[in-house]
Structure prediction request, 704 residues.
Amino acid sequence: MSDAIIESGNVAAAMAVQLARAEVIAAYPITPQTPVTEKLSELITSGEMDAEYVAVESEHSAMAVCIGAASAGVRPFTATSSNGLLYMSEQLHWAAGARLPIVMCVVNRGIGAPWSVWNDHQDAISQRDAGWIQIFAKDHQEIVDSTLKAFRLAELTHIPVMVNYDGYYLSHTYMPFETPEPEQVDAFLPTFEYKHALNPERPESLNTVTLPDARRDVKSIQRGGYMDLRHNLHEEMRLAIKVWQEIDQEFQKVCGRGGAPIIDPYRCDDADFVVVAMGSLANQFRDVVDRLRDDGLKVGVLALQIYRPFPNSIIAEALQSAKHVMVYEKGLSYGYQGALYGDIKSALYPYPSRPCLHNFIVGLGGRGIPTESLFQTVKTACVQDEQMSPAQADEPRWIGLQL
Amino acid sequence: MPDPRFKILTSASTSGPGDAGRTGSWRVERPVIDMDRCIPAKTGKHACHLCWLYCPDNVVSKDLEPTIDLEYCKGCGICAQECPAQAIEMIPDADFIKGADRE
Amino acid sequence: MQSIKDQMIQIRWHGRGGQGAITAAKVVAEAAFRSGYGGAVMAPTFGTERRGAPVTTSLKIAHNKIYDLSPITTPDIVVVLDYMILYEVDVTAGLKPGGWIILNSPLTVEKHLFPGYRTAVANATRLGVEAGLNKGIVNTGIIGAFGRASGLIDIDILTEAIAAEFAGRKPEENALAARLVYDATLMRDSTTGESTDA
Prediction:
């Protein structure tokens, strides 16, 4: 194991991509993702990384280049944020439907309008249904490890993977982390293989008009229609939950880190009140939980590490013994409630024991999230919301509004 | 190595006649090649072959005297349009049906 | 400073865009980590940085892993790279009673007394030039004042971290600047009014 170093989250991501031996980098700079692309281009220019850097003119093209690269059988990487992610939205759906093993870091940032460069999760949440696997990292170590594991996951499942980490809170913050030795990564991550890698010896047309119904192809092989292929994407994405756990175990054997690939509970075992959050926010709650425990409240925090595929049964079982569950999130489905909250609520529906649920919206567009306000809102919810009707509790509450 | 739990269904087609089914029945007109005008047939050299290249159903052979697989030719007429020697004429399919009223 | 060695130490750096406060805080984070603080987190002001405008950087140091990445609101120490910032920004905002204000200033420490706080002053601008740096390079010098006043990290470890960060960019001169400032730093304790130079 290499010695720990102190660097920014963006550099941590770039180092993981270097270790993963990505062969094509196609990215368009956007705050707060820019330093990832800068670092990768530096590594390529200096010869420390053997890859082709394609300086594209837009995020749409960045993903198109990644689609082309993966189709040609080489390992691609890109990164983006916010409106950049939305600009490549069409290509995101394409990459998923084409079953291309692409890894992308999304440095989470609020979406314009109005323009914002600061952190929230709306960019990733808005692409929830694109058919990508979505991982959320809580700190720099998880950025490194998740990015490495994401390449393995993408290439085993042939489903593209988004590694999300918070803009500024992680991207621009410096903290210690370790990187595995190149030999360890090489042992963990085999050479890239794509099922339909373009080959002049056997020409194929990929993803042309696919009829509503199944058909026999020129070789009389039964081929699925559009719906069959999409069903297969869904089924295999569900299976990816198990595969992600297996990959985490393999990674643990090689690198000695891991153990919480799906959920990362902190002091949840006997907790009556469980906070659920994603990204660095979940870590911020650890100190809050410790303080509330000191006050005699049985509180825990459960970090969700993978958002799509949604690990509904794992979450539902983890929340079975809680009386109240508070979902804090940095994004929402406008006109309803928090997207994560809605997902957790539906995950709990088939189970006999359904805790009372509370939804808090925090930190949109970089609005500060003082630890004290987290402490106070959780404490109030623990102490007072007992009297709240489930319908009252079901309304999202916005924390930190100034108007 | 591939994981046997994953089928990874994708939409990929190999070029060849019949990828969209037995399309010969779609035809209203069929291409007929005049070998006196056809460049490879006339010169005895593998040149031109634009009909082979442009055919969306891959039914034209790349022979010196090109043949057309009428099982799958859907009669689109692209070959006739593209032929630089105007060697291909689209003729109503009905003309070739025995017992049709024109006979 | 023995009492705060057991808990999280929060240091807020005040500088101007382009002055190198972030780099200075990063160097101290690195040095803290090397000297056994397992938790060292440095978070710059989030957003747009403009050359010359006042900026802040948060540095948290602890023996255990730090989970809370929110900006510092109640620092133990503030480090000010340019004393003129004192006229633009209330650098004592949230500063804990008895906390340190570490200043780069051409004025004497007596001109920078803050009731209820402790002050450490050195002219890092002049000493930087004496160390062989270009005019206006103060971010490495001020690290010396931080090392002297806080006593948290050994000056040798600090200068090693400086030399490593500035490899190829006058590493020895930058390290020397920190040493010169370390030796020249004057301190006053305005919680009691006594000098703490000795």
Remarks:
- Chain A has a mean pLDDT of 95.
- The CA atoms of residues 300 and 369 of chain A lie 19 Å apart.
- The two ends of chain A are 50 Å apart (CA to CA).
- The first helix of chain A runs from residue 9 to 19.
